[in-house]
Write a structure and sequence with these properties.
514 residues; alpha/beta; Chitobiase, domain 2; TIM Barrel; 2 domains; 8-stranded parallel β-barrel; 7-stranded mixed beta sheet; 16 helices; binds ligand TNX
Amino acid sequence: PALSIAALTLLFSCGSDNPAILSEQSLIPLPVTVTASDSLFELTENTDIYVPQNSEEVKGIGQYLADKLNPSTGLGMEVKPTDAAPAAGNMYLALTEADTTLGDEGYELAISTTGVKLTAHQPAGLFRGIQTLRQALPADVEKSDKQSGSWKIPTGTIRDYPTYAYRGAMLDVARHFFSVEDVKRYIDLIAAYKMNALHLHLSDDQGWRIEIKSWPKLTSLGSKSEVGGGEGGFYTQEQYKDIVKYAQERYIMIIPEIDMPGHTNAALSSYPELNCNEKDPNPKPYTGIEVGFSTLCTSKEITYKFVDDVVRELAEMTPGPYLHMGGDESHVTPMEDYIPFVNRVQDIVQSHGKQMIGWDEVTNASLKPTSVAQYWAKAEYAQSAAKQGAKVIVSPAKKAYLDMQYDSTSKYGLHWAAYIELDSAYNWEPSTMVPGVTSTNILGIEAPIWTETIDNMEALEYMAFPRLPGLAEIGWSPKSVRNWEGYRTRLGKHGKRMEAMGIDYYPSKQVDWG
Ligand code: TNX
């Protein structure tokens, strides 16, 4: 049967970045199900955003939506509490007690000719659904100043929920410091792809980036260096709490990392008593990019006083359940010292009511089932975590490291693990990456970015985009709906949207950017 005249008219009346068919929108991550119908809903001057009367939280989410759409559309949408479904022409956010199958982050987005209805079991689901709604609108909606044009959304219904509970990004603010504003921008970018965790690598050999009131020299001395000799920097506790709140409003948890016992030159040079006083009793600030040369003195009691104070202060200002204690590349800590150290750090973290995450080497110690190992290099460490009943965050350096160069011509980045072009970053599956580490062992995936070679947002975004959206899709979308060819096509159409978002992405030749 031929297309109806109405459908044909619709097909030809819309710009190519906004096809009239919901299932042909370049949605990233791809939803679990998309059922398209062949009409459009148009936002107009009369459109408002209705929210249930009884929920301040949903009202806040409605306001987030209004703040996203109003600058570009100029439609001045208002958030209006109501106790019934609104009249035709509006948008409506609602929570459903009954639809428990949507889980903590799932949503149903129903777009009809009479309006938009977004429903979720939990507020986080509404927030995730709004990200889909943004992508169903023309790309220009992402611009920050008023655009001409009409604001049509293809009709249909999307039911969607994540495959993995944890979908994170990591930002190394130790090698090069990034300001609070930069971190907020990165939070906004990862939120658009439904990620729900930002892991901040807050300390390393080159700098200590978080105020610890009981050990003030960590920042008065230890924050003033970075790779290449720049001025460094740190977050005050107030600034850190502000980042946490900003992330929370986007249903993203902050996971602070203090790396130990290695990667600690900044702490060791601020407090020489944390050294074992053997070869280098008073290390200087470090601005190079070597790894594995520093260690806390694991045999001194003061080291555990230090760890306890740092963990206590971090735990007090971190609402999420996890603290990341590093544990990677401790090449100068003998294994017989490393193991009891990690075990004791794990107890300290637990005594402050948190769960420990560590890089995969921590599986050499005895992990509690509440602890999490972050797989980055060694399959047998991930397997050991699974055997010990601990969960695994999957972030293989050769697939998920956003600081790896795309190819040998990339302006920034390293290539010790691999060159990672878009197809390589996309074409892998967490549950079959390591034999014996399957979905039940996996908490989720993470896309880390180390910043030895990256010292500004443009460079950061160039390395993260467009690989990060693909990694977000691996964590969110079921394996059964994902494939490289389909993703490549969607990503091509998504280029304009990234541009509208002000993202300076890498225009890979693997993609036809249209
Ligand atoms: C290895 S990955 C590290 C980092 C470096 C990174 C550079 C990991 C747990 N440790 O210290 O920054 O390589 O790609």
